[in-house]
Amino acid sequence: MKLKLDENLGERGRQVLIAAGHDVCTVAVQKLEGATDAELLRRCAAEQRALVTLDMDFANPLVYPPERHAGVAVLRLPRKPTRAHLDHVIATLAEALRRQSLEGELWIVEAGRIRIHLQED
């Protein structure tokens, strides 16, 4: 799957996802730091890349309807996260992506579980 890591995620997460077989680009590499959330999602959609982020603003399906973009995975960490917490959450995401596509969906990823926002009819 094609993914873009937000500026709040680093090289370590990128390497884990690349090792899992994903095409991963980052906001930093593309010099998109400071872009608005809307602009970032437009770029992701144009590149057909799902966004992986720690930014909870993207978890609001009323503001960013999942079916209008290439997908968003919002990583949730505890209040005082460690590197091990981040590693576990990214591993949870990588494992889920082996079984299912993120395209057009909103995933809230926590260590060991994922909540998928279902579109209301």
Give the SSE layout.
Elements: E1 2-5, H1 11-19, E2 23-26, H2 37-47, E3 50-53, E4 72-75, H3 83-99, E5 106-110, E6 113-117
Parallel strand pairs: 1-2, 1-3, 3-4, 4-5
Antiparallel strand pairs: 5-6
Helix pairs in contact: 1-3
Q: TL;DR of this structure?
A:
The chain is of the alpha/beta class and 121 residues long. Helix content is 31%, strand content 21%. The chain is built from three helices and six strands.
Account of the 3D structure:
31% of the residues lie in helices and 21% in strands. The chain is an alpha/beta fold and 121 residues long. The chain has one domain. A six-stranded mixed β-sheet has the order 2-1-3-4-5-6, with helices on both faces. Helix 1 (11-19) runs parallel beside helix 3. The longest helix has 17 residues, at 83-99. The model has no long low-confidence stretch (mean pLDDT 91).
Spatial separation of the terminal alpha carbons: 27 Å
Uncertain runs are: none
Q: What radius of gyration results from the CA coordinates?
A: 13 Å
Provide the β-strand percentage band: 15-25%
- Overall shape: it is globular
SS-based structural class? alpha/beta
Order of helices and strands: EHEHEEHEE
Instruction: Tell me roughly what share of residues is in helical segments.
Output: 25-40%
pLDDT averaged residue by residue? 91
Tally of strands: 6
Which assembly state applies to the chains in this document?
single chain
* Count of separate DSSP helical elements: 3
Order of strands across the main sheet:
2-1-3-4-5-6
